[in-house]
Amino acid sequence: MAEPIRVLVTGAAGQIAYSLLFSIAKGDVFGKQQSIVLHLLDIPPMLPVLEGVVMELQDCALPLLREVIPTDKEEEAFKDLDVAVLVGSIPRGEVTERKLLLKANVAIFKSQGAALERFAKKTVKVLVVGNPANTNCLIAAKSAPSIPKENFTCLTRLDHNRACSQVAMRCGVPATHVKNVIIWGNHSPTQYPDVHHCKVNMAGSDLACFEAVKDDTWLKGDFISTVQQRGVAIIKARKQSSAMSAAKAICDHMRDIWSGTPEGEFTSMGVYSTGNSYGVPEDLVYSFPIQIKDKCCRIVDGLAINDFSRGKIDATATELMEERDMAVAALAMLGHPQNPDTRL
Ligand code: NAI
After folding, report:
1. Ligand 1: does its nearest atom lie under 6 Å from the Cβ of 129?
2. pTM for this predicted structure
3. What positions carry a catalytic annotation?
4. Which of 74, 91, 140, 329 is a plausible cystine mate for 113, CB 3.0–4.6 Å?
5. What is the pLDDT of residue 94?
6. Tens of pLDDT along 174-189?
């Protein structure tokens, strides 16, 4: 059995964590030979709830789970981490104004980035889930300058999985028969689910998605809007945001980082843009087609982009630039001791 790895989940008393922790602790992400110490961070009022989650984890009697550390203290939560899954954030419902929401989350991710810098291993793999996930991830990466930017990713795998499933249901095949969907850009309704490079395995042969679906109007219309609006549709139906599917997507994302993507296949995740791929500006966390080997994420370059895709790839980048500029302004204000907004 390998030495235990230390895995942090923040927002550990919340609903995504409730679906996620069991999968991580039973070996679905890091493998059945990898023992785990789980660090669970939430805010002080949630500690009693977190105690209940800890009791349940204990009661699962899982062979891989060596220790569970529930805490509201960053120095304990971030100590010696191998993996950090940052789920906790201020949700949209609580702060309705976008600027204020960004500001509140900048404060959280600045603080958690600084804690990664001070306490975690330099090799730590960081996945940001809490929304706005791309920009929160950028702020965390900026606040941890000695950890490579490549170690920071944000979750767009849920959107990716939604797109795979929509195509699969249309073709009457399992979702695993749909490969190389791409989610471009922001985890928001401006994201672009792109199937121009997607293949669908039907009756044993790989077909181009447009050939398999045989309905270009749907693929260029309702398919895209269904994926873009899926989160909103789930909130409307369930009165709560996606949790089971988000937890599954987190597991898929982190398993791919840990074990790599299959040969010739790619997935989607938000990564730091250096300005060298697909005309996406630098200094954004932007979702690209990604291949992973030896725990390193690489953007799949050189895919053909038609005019239809170009406009959508640029539009979501524009939204991310606006978010970044607001967040960086909020970050600068946080650094200013006289500014009353530092309380946010
Ligand atoms: P939730 O409200 O059930 O749980 C969030 C938890 O985070 C709460 O227990 C809260 O106390 C905690 N929290 C707040 N501030 C914290 C801090 N500074 N440190 C540690 N914990 C903190 O929310 P849920 O449903 O679990 O969702 C969490 C986040 O994930 C939300 O921002 C949601 O929008 C986002 N999300 C992102 C998805 C993606 O695909 N990127 C998909 C679904 C949700």
Report:
1. yes
2. 0.96
3. 187
4. 140
5. 65
6. 999 999 999 999 999 9
